[in-house]
Design goal:
This protein is an all-alpha fold and about 550 residues long. It has 20 helices and no strands.
């Protein structure tokens, strides 16, 4: 007979709440601001940036700062104390959120967003490290699952909540909404979170290693984003990729020669730690491609409204919110291996389903205030819903067990830097994968467009400026007279974009299949602790 599960203590419960709020706000601010960018561009004056350039810096400046500083932040958590650094991150995020919400011009908003990214970098690895030292066994897996579910919920609901705030109040509310949440998190941290750190840490902090890590992660991320934005016509993208690559190669050499290295080389002696990070690189690379190109395809090619695009894939996100904690608990009890292999395999099958979506599939023209538009077209139930359900179910199976495998593969004293390494890889991998796939689908699109409309020369700059992959310029939509030639060009764009989208899905499915194989072959389940061992661990 199964023993009843022990209830969380007040300390565990509030630690979990603080961890979820701290990391959730970081994820929220990577999505909620997107819907505010158009109004920011119209309302904020700028003497230094163009509108599009300023919007890009507001979004990417935050993401790049978080990515570049994650590993440094994780090491600081372990070295100086996780509660101390988490509190500093919460306070910094609160102050910078206020500054962003009150920014008088575009230049200062960009600066405040970069500083917000610095504070955010302290919160993500700190949140997982706090959970690692507070929970054990099945309870730890359940806590990781709740953390993953909350992160998913903020990512899914962020654009929706942000849209309501921006439309009903102001774009500034997208930043100021953080303030009450951060106050609760600060109170919970101050009153209930216990301090912990790497007790074996001694000597001086490895600032040289921190610089090399920042150059490696920041160089690769910035180079991939900048190169893709400029279609690889500006050499700066290649220069930054080169700096990132050199720093990445130099990093393990440096770490083996330092007395107190920022990243202890023995972490990679753990099989599960190494395998989990390899699969993270593959799987999160696919996740980025899917999230970006599916949204672009359904709006730019098929013709979904923005609201319909958000609602169309809500079933996938609901699986993650509802089931993550359950699969996290099961992974804590039975081991993560099976879940980490089955999850990406189902995600792969769901992704392959998109290959059957035709260029003629019907759009969903959902619009608030028009009840007749609320029901999706029949084609959505065939072309999109099965893929969304399979993908979401697989993701819910995989996310929390992957976190469990990662955080149980290293000593608790290194939990901060271990979490930071994995989070950095989950950000660099998508940028690199996205840059490579962008080249592939761009090549596919213009080749397909030229085959179907030979009068459009893809080497002509005006053609490339007018006709972009997955963005159909269709003058024939709506009840307007349309010349036959224009209709033919629009159809050529739609078919070429659909082929490019299929290629992106095929590459993504390959990444997911590789991730499933890496996990299935590489992950080893740890023996379940005996009751006496579990009691000692809890104590």
């Amino acid at each position: 007979m199964r023993e009843p599960q022990a209830l969380m203590t007040a300390r565990q419960r509030w630690t979990l709440i603080a961890a979820i709020l701290g990391s959730g706000i970081v994820f929220l601010d990577s999505t909620v601001v997107n819907v505010a960018l158009p109004k920011i561009g119209r309302e904020l004056p700028s003497s230094l940036f163009g509108v599009l350039e300023g919007q890009s810096y507001i979004y990417n400046g935050y993401l790049l700062t978080v990515s570049a500083l994650l590993i440094l932040a994780g090491a600081l958590n372990d070295f100086y104390g996780r509660k101390r650094m988490f509190t500093l991150g919460l306070a910094g995020f609160l102050v910078t959120s206020l500054l962003c919400g009150l920014a008088p011009n575009m230049e200062l908003l960009v600066l405040f967003r970069v500083l917000q990214g610095v504070a955010g970098a302290l919160l993500v690895p700190g949140s997982l490290a706090l959970l690692t030292v507070t929970f054990t066994g099945e309870a730890q897996g359940r806590a990781f699952g709740l953390w993953a579910a909350a992160s998913a919920a903020t990512t899914i609901l962020g654009p929706f909540v942000g849209g309501i705030l921006v439309d009903s109040i102001s774009w500034r509310a997208a930043f100021l909404i953080n303030v009450p949440l951060l106050i609760v998190a600060l109170w919970a941290t101050a009153t209930h979170v216990q301090e912990s750190r790497d007790e074996d840490a001694s000597g001086r902090f490895d600032w040289l290693g921190a610089l090399v890590v920042a150059l490696a992660v920041g160089g690769l991320s910035f180079g991939a984003i900048y190169g893709q934005q400029r279609e690889w016509k500006d050499p700066l993208g290649f220069v930054m990729l080169g700096i990132g690559a050199v720093a990445t190669i130099a990093l393990p050499i440096l770490m083996t020669r330092r007395a107190d290295p920022l990243i202890p080389p023995e972490l990679f002696g753990s099989r599960n730690f190494t395998v989990t990070n390899i699969s993270t690189f593959l799987i999160y690379g696919a996740l980025y491609v899917l999230g970006y190109f599916i949204t672009l395809f359904v709006q730019g090619t098929v013709g979904f409204t923005a609201a319909a695009a958000g609602l169309a894939f809500l079933p996938s996100g609901l699986f993650l919110v509802v089931l993550s904690s359950r699969f996290g608990a099961l992974a804590g009890k039975y081991g993560p291996k099976a879940f980490m292999a089955i999850g990406p395999a189902l995600m792969c099958i769901g992704t392959l389903w998109y290959l059957r979506v035709p260029a003629t599939t019907s759009p969903w023209l959902f619009a608030f205030g028009d009840p007749g538009s609320y029901l999706p077209p029949a084609s959505w139930f065939i072309d999109f819903l099965p893929a969304s359900l399979l993908f979401g179910f697989g993701l819910s199976i995989m996310v929390a067990p992957l976190t469990t495998a990662l955080m149980t593969s290293v000593p608790a004293k290194n939990s901060g830097v271990a979490s930071a390494i994995n989070n950095a890889i989950s950000r660099v991998g998508p940028q690199l994968a996205g840059a490579v796939i962008f080249i592939a689908i761009t090549t596919s699109f213009y080749a397909g467009l030229h085959d179907r409309a030979p009068q459009l020369d893809p080497n002509n700059p005006e053609v490339r400026k007018t006709y972009a992959p997955l963005n159909v310029v269709d003058p024939c939509r709506g009840n307007v007279p349309c010349p036959q030639s224009a209709a033919a060009v629009a159809q050529a764009q739609r078919e070429a974009s659909t082929d490019a989208f299929h290629l992106a899905m095929l590459i993504s499915a390959g990444l997911l299949a590789a991730g499933a194989a890496v996990n299935g072959l590489g992950i080893k389940n740890r023996p379940a602790p005996q009751p006496a061992e579990a009691q000692r661990a809890a104590a």
